[in-house]
Amino acid sequence: MSNTHDNNFSILHWLGLTLVIWGHQYVLMGLNAPVVLGGVCHEIGLKILFVVSGYLVTKSFQNSTSCMQYMTKRVKRIFPPLILCVISMALVLGPIVTTKSMHRYFLKVPAFIWKNILLRPTFNLPGVFLKNPSSRALNGSLWSLPVECFCYVILMVVGVLIRRIRRYSRSIAEMIGVAFFGVVYLLYALYTNGLMTGDAVVWGTDWIYACSIFVYFAAGSLIAFLRMENVCKLQYAVLGLVFYMVLPEWLIILRPALLAYAVISLALSAPTKLSRFLDQHAYYYAGYLWAFPIQQFFIYFLMVRHAVKMEPTLLFLISYAVIICVAWVMTEVVDGVCKGSDSRN
To answer: Could you tell me if residue 2 is inside a domain?
Structure first.
């Protein structure tokens, strides 16, 4: 991704992650998640993360000299933290909390590890979190990674096509980019209007539901592709968020475009001391990977095993503090192994 030192992308990353963790805290306790911007907060948080990713990954592709360089950055970004997280969950966390024998538990571990590393989400292990209020999943957040990586690949394919056409006509190349976004938006419109339903689970991912998230990546990507930074103004971002919240049902398909414009406008506004501080502590991806299992563990340990009554806000704060610490440690471990890689690229 592009350098984030002169903007507020780190704030948006942490904001999106915080909303995801906050919403999951309620859901995993069997409660209704708080509503933010007219939607449940963990879904809004994920959409923010996809918008930011769409913009920054597109910039990364534009700044890459080859597809190999671009994909190398993507692989370094996604897989080392994922591999460490999956192996640690299966070999450390799972055995601590499972109610099954070690023999029965470890029979399922190899499949759990290789499937998740190959981006085929597998959420359960024998005897793990069986009595948790809402979910037995060890890490439900893994479902979004295949969608994210699919976005990377599609961006590369479309980007290469546009680069080749741009040699002959810049206007036609831009029209193709906008047309592709139009196709994505059409799929989103069909989904939101209930016209695209059914079972489309492939490799462990529901690709029909993925259309509702993919469009946010595409919206962020389009802003980068068309180089719309000059029209992304902070005052208009606030107006865009207001429109986002009050849109009538029949105009709900405009939400991805409005949210993307608002998010990127906020990200490109003048940097603050907070953004510079967070930019030096870019642990949000590791935080995203580890948040769900850590939250599940505290629910299991405090509420299930020891019958401690906990308020969602208090448990959120406890989990959040531990998530940040674990994310920092895991990021340092990965950076130590993969020297020279940048978790923001």
So the answer is: no
Residue 31's nearest CA partner among 318, 340, 315, 317 is: 315
User: What is the Cα–Cα distance from 53 to 9, expressed in whole angstroms?
Assistant: 10
CA-CA distance, 154 to 184, in Å (whole number)? 11
> pLDDT per residue over 113-145, tens digit each?
999 999 999 999 999 999 999 989 999 999 999
Domain that holds residue 14: 9-337
Residue 6 is predicted with a pLDDT of 62
304 pLDDT above the threshold of 80 = yes
Task: Please name the residues in contact with 152: beta carbons below 8 A apart, sequence gap of 6 or more.
Answer: 57, 71, 74
Indicate the average pLDDT of the chain. 92
How many separate domains does the chain show? 1
Is 343 domain-assigned?
Answer: no
What is the reported pTM?
Answer: 0.94
Q: Is residue 183 part of a domain?
A: yes
Whether the predicted pLDDT of 72 surpasses 90: yes
Does position 1 have pLDDT exceeding 60, yes or no? no
For range 91-102, the mean pLDDT:
96
